[in-house]
C-alpha cells in the first residue's frame, strides 16, 4: 500500500498545482489524521467545540512545515469528498496562523477540475464571508480543549502560498530525503 505522504508527489506542477490528501471533511466534526505508519486515515478525535470543518482539509504530500507536520491545506469544495481522497488543486491564498505558540499556516486551494472555481485565482477572489468563516473556524475549533489556543494572523496572496509550499518542500527534502 502506498504511503500518501512519502510516495505521492507534491503535485503535478508544484507549487502551481499540488495534490491535497483529504483527512477531514466539510461539514463534519471528526478530526481524522493520516497515519503514515499504518498507512491510512485514522480518527484522531472529535472536535470538542460545536463547530465543523468549513471545507475539506488535509495535507500536501512530500511537505513538512515549521510545526513539524506535513503542510496543511484547506480545499474549497462544494461537496465533501472522503478521507484519503487525493485532490489536484491550485493554491489561491495563505492564512497565517498561530497554534499554541507554533507557526501553523494553512494553504487555501481550489480543485483544479471544478469549473465553479475557474475564476478563483488569488486571495482577493475569495469572498469576505469565506475568509471570515475559515478564520472563525480555526480561531475557535480548539476552544474547549484544555490549554489549547489558536489565533489567525491574516491573509496573504497566492504568491505567499506558493512560497510557503516551496519552503515546505525544501524542509521535507532536508529532513526526509
From TrEMBL:
The EC number(s) given in the record are 3.6.1.1
Record keywords: Magnesium included?
yes
Residues engaged in binding Mg(2+) 2: 72
The UniProt entry lists the main location of this chain as cytoplasm
Q: Which amino acid positions bind substrate, per UniProt?
A: 31, 45, 57, 141
Assembly and interactions?
Answer: Homohexamer.
Q: Which residues bind Mg(2+) 1?
A: 67, 72, 104
Q: What is this protein called?
A: Inorganic pyrophosphatase
- Which biological process annotations from GO are given for this protein? phosphate-containing compound metabolic process
- InterPro entries annotated for this entry? Pyrophosphatase, Pyrophosphatase_sf
Q: Name one GO molecular function term.
A: magnesium ion binding
Tell where it localizes. Answer: Cytoplasm
**Which Gene Ontology terms of cellular component type are present?**
cytoplasm
Q: Which UniProt keywords apply?
A: Cytoplasm, Hydrolase, Magnesium, Metal-binding
Q: Which family does it belong to?
A: Belongs to the PPase family.
Its encoding gene is what? Answer: ppa
Top EC category = hydrolase
Required co-factors: Mg(2+)
Q: Which reaction does it catalyse?
A: diphosphate + H2O = 2 phosphate + H(+)
Q: What does this protein do?
A: Catalyzes the hydrolysis of inorganic pyrophosphate (PPi) forming two phosphate ions.
